[in-house]
């Protein structure tokens, strides 16, 4: 859709936007989520107005970014040294980190070595950068910003005996930290290796051109390999042919449950198994966890059974296709029984594709996750049951692609409502009205990120809502900061 829009004149663009908005409105109407038609109509009007400005923003951002993509002259700067990075975490955590690291390299005039991906995380995926991302496109499309090389030149490595400075930069840092603390290291050592990369750059207070570069990397320079993209698009087409679909990121996977200590709905044996797993992994530091307390604070992923009730309460119809965008569900097929009864058109990639097609990705959890990323980004509605990195990165992509609907579940409120419904304090009608009402402002509409001084972890995450890339400052003024309280 974007590339179509880019090549056309301003006037034609506007009419395309009109069509897209019409379609979006139809989609919004297609799945009636709110009880009152009156309230609904008003909200649609309101969003229509927001979407209208939203689309202009998206187009502008894409055009701006694309000019640099097509540039043929590399940026001419004197490199201050080489930056090597070893990313840690799963696919989406690493994706955000790569965007940050390119930005740091640009700020400090460094030569970046293509990032190394984590092979020792829980997922133990042996994939390299080029197995997941189109490395040629990554290097070429950023050449106007930063020089990226595939490996450290032998000459450089030898000149100081293969011993780079290895260190983790301080998390949530500003550009001042990198200029004042990190840059001087390069005058002494030619190579610095960052051995942790998650959340090393602050969400807020970063100069606009650097924020925009983070977006350029995220939305344009990082493309999945042809192999992943093609199979992902095949899944999308298969689903679209059968009608609209919800992508449900059902984060009820073993690692999530073990790490979070959430055992709601598990048998005693299962709870014990999860606990053993947690104790076995040194980097999951929090060991003694009271599941009920965490759940009531909204810190647990919803169970498949809880998710079923929430989807029904939100008005998702029984015949809607639900694509499960997740790895293996803990407790396997049995744990999906309730959800499948309520929504018979549940599908997973394993059901849509031949085993041979998926085989090449088996044992490569990041490549599997990449397929789910493609489908989740393209879905009519995206609903994550936990706000991990995948949920956040997909949310950001959906905002960028025209504020496609993402339902951001308020788990703390929801578990309270679920408990009241379970003990019959709330009837179904009361329960579902309360669920809908509490999510009216949580569908990924235009909003400012929430800024919390000195508590970067609690702020809205840059990559979930990179609002600087979705609007020009003058146009952002009208946005109501309170629309998304998270
Ligand atoms: C890059 O800039 C330097 C100094 O400004 C100049 O001497 C050099 O010719 C430039 N190189 C290219 C390829 O433009
Ligand atoms: C990076 O290079 C540009 C010129 O291309 C220069 O203006 C800027 O001061 C340099 N910054 C650093 C941190 O070296
Ligand atoms: C990163 O490097 C530092 C300093 O060399 C070391 O103490 C730390 O254990 C390393 N961390 C990782 C995750 O490798
Ligand atoms: C994946 O790994 C398992 C065990 O590590 C192995 O048995 C299986 O053959 C592998 N599958 C593929 C497709 O490589
Ligand atoms: C239902 O649960 C809520 C809190 O979980 C409690 O305050 C309330 O008294 C319970 N009602 C009944 C009828 O058990
Ligand atoms: C929203 O927040 C931004 C920055 O956090 C601020 O500049 C802007 O004035 C705020 N807008 C409103 C309507 O409060």
Strand content: 5-15%
For the secondary structure, the number of strands is 9
Q: Specify the oligomeric state.
A: single chain
Helix percentage range: 40-55%
- The overall number of domains is 3
Shape: globular
Q: pLDDT below 50 for ≥5 consecutive residues: which ranges?
A: 1-70, 480-486
- CATH topological fold name of the largest domain: Rossmann fold
Bound molecules: 2-acetamido-2-deoxy-beta-D-glucopyranose
**Major beta sheet summary:** 5 strands, parallel
Question: What is the rounded distance between the termini?
Answer: 30 Å
Q: CATH first level of the largest domain: which class?
A: Alpha Beta
Rg result:
23 Å
Helix run count: 23
- The CATH architecture name of the largest domain reads 3-Layer(aba) Sandwich
Strands in their spatial order, largest beta sheet? 3-2-1-5-4
Q: Summarize model confidence as the mean pLDDT.
A: 85
Protein name: O-fucosyltransferase family protein
Subcellular location: Membrane
Family: Belongs to the glycosyltransferase GT106 family.
Pathway: Glycan metabolism
Describe this structure in words.
It contains 23 helices and nine strands. It has helices at 2-6, 10-30, 37-69, 91-107, 129-132, 135-141, 154-159, 175-188, 208-221, 226-241, 254-260, 268-280, 291-296, 304-313, 337-342, 349-352, 355-359, 365-378, 389-400, 411-422, 428-437, 467-470, 473-476, and strands spanning 82-85, 111-113, 147-149, 165-167, 191-194, 245-249, 321-324, 346-347, 381-384. The protein is globular, with a radius of gyration of 23 Å. Bound molecules: 2-acetamido-2-deoxy-beta-D-glucopyranose (NAG) (6 copies). One 2-acetamido-2-deoxy-beta-D-glucopyranose (NAG) binds next to loops. One 2-acetamido-2-deoxy-beta-D-glucopyranose is lined by residues 166-168, 195-196.
């Amino acid at each position: 859709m974007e590339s179509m829009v880019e090549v056309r004149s301003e006037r034609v663009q506007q009419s395309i936007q009109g069509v897209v908005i019409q379609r979006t409105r139809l989609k919004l109407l297609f799945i009636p989520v709110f009880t009152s038609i009156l309230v609904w109509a008003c909200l649609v009007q309101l969003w229509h107005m927001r979407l209208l400005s939203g689309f202009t923003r998206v187009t502008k951002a894409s055009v701006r970014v694309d000019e640099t993509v097509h540039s043929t002259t590399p940026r001419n700067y004197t490199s201050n040294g080489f930056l090597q990075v070893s990313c840690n975490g799963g696919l989406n955590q690493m994706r955000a980190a790569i965007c940050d690291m390119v930005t740091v390299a640009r700020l400090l005039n460094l030569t970046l070595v293509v990032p190394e991906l984590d092979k020792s995380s829980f997922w133990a995926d042996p994939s390299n950068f080029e197995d997941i991302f189109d490395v040629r496109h990554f290097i070429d499309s950023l050449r106007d910003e930063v020089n990226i090389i595939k490996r450290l030149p032998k000459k450089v490595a030898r000149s100081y005996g293969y011993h780079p400075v290895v260190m983790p930069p301080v998390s949530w840092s500003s550009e001042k930290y990198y200029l004042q603390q990190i840059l001087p290291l390069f005058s002494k050592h030619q190579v610095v290796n960052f051995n942790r990369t998650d959340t090393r750059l602050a969400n807020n207070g970063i100069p606009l051109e650097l924020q925009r570069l983070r977006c350029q990397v995220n939305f344009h320079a990082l493309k999945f390999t042809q192999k992943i993209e093609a199979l992902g698009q095949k899944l999308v087409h298969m689903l679209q042919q059968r009608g609209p679909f919800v992508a449900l990121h059902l984060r009820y996977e073993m690692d999530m449950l073990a790490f979070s200590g959430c055992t709601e709905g598990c048998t005693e044996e299962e709870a014990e198994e999860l606990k053993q797993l947690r104790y076995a992994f040194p980097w999951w530091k929090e060991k003694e966890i009271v599941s009920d307390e965490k759940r009531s604070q909204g810190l647990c992923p919803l169970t498949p059974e809880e998710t079923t009730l929430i989807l029904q309460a939100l008005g998702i119809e029984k015949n809607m296709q639900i694509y499960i965008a997740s790895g293996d569900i803990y407790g396997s097929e049995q744990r999906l029984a309730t959800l499948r009864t309520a929504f018979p058109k549940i599908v997973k990639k394993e059901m849509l594709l031949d085993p041979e097609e998926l085989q090449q990705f088996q044992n490569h959890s990041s490549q599997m996750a990449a397929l789910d990323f493609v489908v989740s980004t393209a879905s009519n509605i995206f609903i994550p049951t936990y706000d991990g990195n995948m949920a956040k990165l997909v949310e950001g992509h959906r905002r960028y692609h025209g504020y496609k609907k993402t339902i951001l579940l308020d788990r703390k409120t929801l578990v309270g409502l679920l408990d009241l419904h379970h003990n019959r304090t709330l009837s179904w009608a009361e329960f579902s009205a309360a669920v809908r009402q509490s999510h009216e402002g949580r569908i990924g509409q235009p909003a400012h990120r929430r800024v919390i001084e000195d508590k970067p972890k609690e702020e809205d995450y840059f990559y979930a809502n990179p609002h600087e890339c979705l609007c020009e400052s003058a146009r952002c003024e009208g946005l109501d900061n309170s629309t998304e309280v998270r």
